[in-house]
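User:
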Amino acid sequence: MPVPDVPTAADIQQAARRIQPFIHRTPVMSSRAFDEASGIHAWFKCENLQRMGAFKIRGAMNSLLCLTPRQRARGVVTYSSGNHAQAVALAARLQAASAAVVMPSDAPRAKLEATRAQGAEIVFYNRLKEDREAIGRRIASESGAFIVPPFDHPWTIAGQGTVALELLDQIPPPQALIAPVGGGGLLSGCAIAAHSLQHEIRVFGAEPERANDTFLSFSAGRRIEIPQPDTIADGLRATRPGEITFPILRQHVESVLLVTEDEIRAAVRFLLFRMKILVEPSGAVAAAAVLHHRLPPEISSAAIILSGGNIDPEVLADILR
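Assistant: Predicted structure:
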């Protein structure tokens, strides 16, 4: 299948039809307690309840389904700290394809075990000393496997954009949409989809202060690379925005909202104790931004994407303490 330079709204619509048999249409929740604490009426798209516990199955499944049978027969390779790894492993298993996943040696144990349980081959690397993309390219060169990037590919972006298609079909029109941003696949896809459905909607990204590469890139007007960030939001540890995603973000996203580590932890606790849903730190970053009043004060309603729920028990116990 031809690969578009940048996915369009039509590509996202096609992706939604393509992956529909393989994913969950996740529920939307609201919370009076959250509305009172934040001063905003919020809807939560619960991708923590998606297959494999995160939105990533959408982009991974779309990528596998866009491959030809001959390409799938050669297998796929990817690099990820966790959720994308699990998603590619599951998508490959569902399509009877082999998968090799390059994961950091300090990847969360729950995500590592879930990836291995899907039958993927795990290749470890040192995130401080080695280049995961170079390792992935080497494996692909040796095996003929197709690389499924975690965010910087039109097929991945189109798949992730289906989150916003569903969300805006499930709720009245909100004034704003907020999603976490690591490499930018989820946010860029959702921004394209949201503006195709609701031209005036205001789109924001949310990012940890310690992993602020997209915030800095917005300020500089170009992609800025930061050192490997140390944040509890392990799924948002990208060191710079994607080559494809960043121009999309600049076109469609108003600004990037920063939150502290303590604010992320507080959001995880709030979602668990007040809404009874378990969300991992990366998945709670957008909620943290709204809960701690980072949105412009004139915004009174917002759709928030809870991107995942895969959290190690030890991390959760530390947050709860």
